[in-house]
Protein: Mur ligase family protein
Organism: Mesorhizobium opportunistum
Amino acid sequence: MKSKLRRDFKDLRWRISVYRARRARAKSKATFIGVTGSSGKSTVTALLGHILAAHRPVYTQVLANTIHSVVSTLYKRMKQVERPDYVVMETGAYGIDTIRPMAEMLQPHVAVVTMVRLEHVTSFRTLENVALEKSALVAALRPDGLAVLNADDPHVADMGAGTGCRVVTFGTAQTADYRVTEIHAAYPDLLTLSIHWRGGLLELKTSFPAEYFWLPTVAAVATALELGVPPDKVAVQVATFQPVVNRCTVLITRGGPQFIIDAAKAPWHSINLALDMVAKATASRKRIVLGQISDYAGSTRKYAHAYQTAREIADQVIYTGDNAHRSRASQADRDNGRFVELRTAKEVSDHIKRTAVAGELILVKSSSNLHLERIALAWTHDVKCWIHICGKPEGCHTCGLYELPYEQHRAHVMRRRRAKVWRQFRGLFGGRSS
C-alpha cells in the first residue's frame, strides 16, 4: 500500500512538473536550439552556448540530456538567466522513442544534428534506427525553423528532405553550405581550420588537441552565424573556449606528464580517432590508457584490435577495467613492458606515478563508468575515492567528492543537505525579532 502511494505521489509530482514545463515553454520568447547526434553533441552545445553568450543572454544545458532534464530546465533552471534570448539544450537518445518526447516539449526553432553512428546497440540494432530516432528533433521543428545538418553523413543529410524548414549543411563536402578546409592538429599544435561560407572565409583557432573536433566546431559556428552572430565575435569565442570536461581535456602537470583525458564516452567508432590523435602528437614518450569500450556490436575482439593499433603508436599501452584481459597482447609485450594489464584506476594511477617521465603524453580513453579521470586528477589533487565502479553517472569534477573516501560520500551529502536546510530556515526566521 505504501509503495503504491509513493508511486502515485511520484507520478503526480511528475505530471505537475510537465505541466509547469509546458507552461513555461509557451510563455518564453527565447529561441530554442536542440542539439543531438551520436557524438559531438555536448561539445556543440557548450561551444554554441559560449559563442551566443557574447552576443545575447543564453541558457545552456550540457550533458544532462534526458526528458527529466528538459522538463526541469524549462520550468526551473532557465530562471538562472533572466529572460534568456537563447536556450541551447543537448538531447540524447537512450532507446527507441526517447528523443521525440523531449523534442515535442522543447519545440525547437533550431535543430542541430552532428552524426549517426551505431550507439546503444541493444536498443537500436541498426544505423537506420539510430537515424530515425535522431530525426525526431528535426521533425519537431516549427514551420519557420532551421535544421543544421552534417553534409558528410548521408543519414543526417537525408533528415532535411520533406521537412518544409530551412536547411543549412556543414562538412568537408563541396556542396556544404559551411565547407571546412585546412584542418590541422598535431598536439601540442591545437586545432586550426578554415570555413568557407556565403559570408566569405573564416579562419579559426581552437583549444582542441585533435583534428576530429572540426565537426562540432563547424556545427556550432554555422548555427551561430545563421543566428546573426558577427564572424569576428565567433572567432574570438571559439579561440577562448575550453573543451568540455573529460572530452579531450588537456592537463599539463608541473614536472610530470601531459594528460589528454577522454574519459566520458568510448564508443567503438571513437577509438581510432583518439589513437590517431596520439599518433600525430609530438612528445618525448607516449602512453595510452584504455578502459571500457562501449556501444559496439560483435565480440570483445574489439579490445584486441585496439591494442594492435595502439602498440604501434605508443611506447606503452595500459589496459584497465573488467575487460583488461582481452587485449591478446603477446607474452613478449608483457615481459618487456610494452603492455601492462591492471584492473583498477588506483593501480593505474600508482603505476604512472612510479614510472612517469617529465613531458610524456598520456591518453586516458574510456567510457565514464570507470571514472579514469581520477588518474590525471591525482596529479593535482589528493584523490581518496578509488572505488572501482561507483555507479554515479556524473564525472568526478561534477561530483566533487573525489578527495573523500567513497564510504564517506553519503554522510557528507546528508550533512551538506542539512546545512542547506538550516541556512534556509535561518533566512526565513533568523531576522525576525522576538
Q: What stands out?
A: The CA atoms of residues 385 and 407 lie 8 Å apart.
